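TL;DR need structure tokens for one chain.
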Amino acid sequence: QVQLVESGGGLVQAGGSLRLSCAVSGRTFNTAAVGWFRQAPGKEREFVAAINWNGSSTRYADFVKGRFTCSRDNAKKTVYLQMSSLKPEDTAVYYCATRTLTITTRAQDFGSWGQGTQVTVSS
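>> reply
TL;DR here they are.
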């Protein structure tokens, strides 16, 4: 059974940076694509970024391109989301999720989810 644990969230000023981590347990990590999603209060969950099973392909939402970078360390079974130039509108709970091999941007395509980590960006 796959379990995901996000960490690294917190409070940061606008323009600052945070690095989120998603630690994945289970035997399927090396064949898993990992996605990052976020949900702000009163809003639907939205796609942020994703990385395929071996790190050779990434995809980003338009609103984070050039600011966020997704990477993975398969030896550590961890995926990272480096967030820079943060804006108040980036405030949300950030979730990571896994699916087999390839990237999609649809939350319903991901089968296992973490509990989320809060990111708050002050103006």
